[in-house]
C-alpha cells in the first residue's frame, strides 16, 4: 500500500510545472525570510532549504533596480 501511495505521489509531482527562476525574485526571497522567521521546526528547515536552492542570499544582496 505504501508503494502505491509513493508511486502515485511521484507521478503527481512529475506533472507539476517548474516555476521559472525569474518569478522567484528578491521579493519572493523577502517573503520567504519573513515566513521562515515565523515558522518552527520542519517548516523552518524547508523554507531555509528553498532559500538556499534559489540563491536568495545573492538576490537579497543585489542592488535594487531603479
In short:
The chain is mainly alpha-helical and 66 residues long.
What characteristic shape results from the CA principal axes?
flat
Task: Write down the secondary-structure element order.
Answer: HHHH
Instruction: Provide a count of the helices.
Output: 4
- Roughly what percent helix? 55-70%
- β content, as a range? under 5%
Rg, Å, rounded: 16 Å
Give the structural class: mainly alpha
How far from one another are the termini? Answer: 55 Å
Query: Count of DSSP E strands?
Result: 0
Major sheet size, sense and barrel closure: none
Mean of residue pLDDT? 82
Q: Note poorly predicted spans.
A: none
Characterize the structure shown.
By secondary structure, the protein is an all-alpha fold. It has a domain at 21-66. It is built from four helices and no strands. It has helices at residues 2-15, 26-38, 41-53, 56-61. Helix 2 (26-38) runs antiparallel to helix 3 (41-53). The radius of gyration is 16 Å and the shape is flat. The relative contact order is 0.12.
Task: Output the keywords.
mainly alpha; 4 helices; flat
SSE layout and pairings?
Layout: H1 2-15, H2 26-38, H3 41-53, H4 56-61
Amino acid at each position: 500500500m505504501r508503494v502505491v501511495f509513493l508511486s502515485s505521489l511521484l507521478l503527481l509531482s512529475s506533472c507539476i510545472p517548474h516555476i521559472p527562476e525569474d518569478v522567484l525574485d528578491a521579493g519572493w526571497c523577502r517573503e520567504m525570510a519573513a515566513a521562515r522567521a515565523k515558522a518552527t521546526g520542519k517548516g523552518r528547515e524547508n523554507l531555509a532549504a528553498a532559500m538556499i536552492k534559489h540563491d536568495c542570499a545573492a538576490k537579497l544582496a543585489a542592488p535594487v533596480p531603479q
